[in-house]
Amino acid sequence: MASQTGTVLITGSNRGIGLEFVKQYLLLNWEVRATCRNPADAVALKKLSVDNPNLILHTLDITNESSIDSLLKEIGDWPLDLLINNAAYLGPPNPQKFGQIDYQMFTRSFEVNAIGPIRVTEKLMKNVRQGNMKKIIFLGSAAGSIAQIAPPVTLYSYRASKAALHMSVHNLYHELKPEKIMVSLINPGLVDTRGFLALQPDDPIPERLSKIVPIELIKMIQDGKIPMITTLESVTQMIHYIENLTTESLPLFVNCDGTPMPW
Ligand SMILES: NC(=O)c1ccc[n+]([C@@H]2O[C@H](COP(=O)([O-])OP(=O)(O)OC[C@H]3O[C@@H](n4cnc5c(N)ncnc54)[C@H](OP(=O)(O)O)[C@@H]3O)[C@@H](O)[C@H]2O)c1
Which of 18, 22, 232, 249 could form a disulfide with 12 if both were Cys (CB 3.0 to 4.6 A apart)? Predict the structure, then answer.
């Protein structure tokens, strides 16, 4: 269990891995700023904020400059120990297949996954510099690892946009190292944010799942060929890794358990 407490801001925190980061940092007594596009509809976050005075909710669309500027106004000079760039856009699988690519969606993937996290980070640097820990985390993806690419060939826009993010994070790592600001890129693993683990081997694949993940991948998960972990397992490991992160930590791109990820 992590021992230090501090201040953390998390993007895309209304569901999935982002929400689990909020829950776990609250349990660890951190001061948490949870951001999402629509706090009014974020039922789980609102429930958490009732019992947790350490939790403050903010509106943030990471693709929208004025939304980021409004956040900056709201947080003012708040010292930020840890920034977690979690928000991302996976998008449905069919418009990401070669031969039927939706280029508006391709552009959207880049806006959210590659540009958004860098834009947010650039704007929040003053707060990060005022923090004690000076840690900036980006959620990367094995799907954006060029070295690991293997069939089934899917998710053109998601994969390309994550690979682009990885490159920017590598740049940023070198950029901020002289200031002793830590930058890290974490692949959270294949994490069950939608109920895949409840699928039995012979269950028909529900449309709600095939709409969001390529059917070939779901079959591999269902057959146990690709191991999937829970948000609790992934985030517990990432928090442990982040706590132990130092200016000397290498490599820059790791799995949730800290093992190296190939670029
Ligand atoms: N789950 C996995 O297996 C897996 C594997 C590898 C990498 N990752 C990475 O881990 C991170 C979290 O994954 P997840 O599975 O928890 O994702 P998720 O369930 O799809 O949630 C994505 C979050 O990002 C938010 N978001 C999307 N567009 C946004 C925007 N323009 N501005 C602000 N927020 C926005 C979503 O908000 P709305 O609810 O408003 O849409 C949601 O809160 C992502 O970076 C993802 O790429 C996940």
Answer: 18
d(CA 42, CA 37): 9
CA 233/CA 230 separation, integer angstroms: 5
CATH number, position 88: 3.40.50.720
Instruction: Please report whether residue 208 resides in a domain.
Output: no
The residue nearest atom 21 of ligand 1, judged by CA position, is 16
Please give the Cα distance from 99 to 183 (Å, whole number).
37
Stretch (H or E) spanning 59: strand 55-59
175-188: pLDDT as tens digits = 999 999 999 999 99
Residue 2 lies in a domain: no
CA–centroid distance, 16 to ligand 1, in Å, is: 7
Distance CA 22, CA 19 (A): 5
Instruction: Find the 88 Cα to ligand 1 centroid distance in Å.
Output: 4
Counted domains in the chain: 1
Query: Which atom of ligand 1 is least distant from the CA of 17?
Result: 16
- 178 found inside a domain: yes
> Which residues form the domain of 113?
7-198+229-255
Measuring from each residue's beta carbon to the nearest atom of ligand 1, which residues come in under 6 Å? 11-12, 14-18, 36-37, 60-63, 86-90, 112, 116, 139, 141, 187-188, 190-191, 193
What tens digit of pLDDT does each residue of 179-232 get? 999 999 999 999 999 888 888 888 888 888 888 888 888 888 888 888 899 999
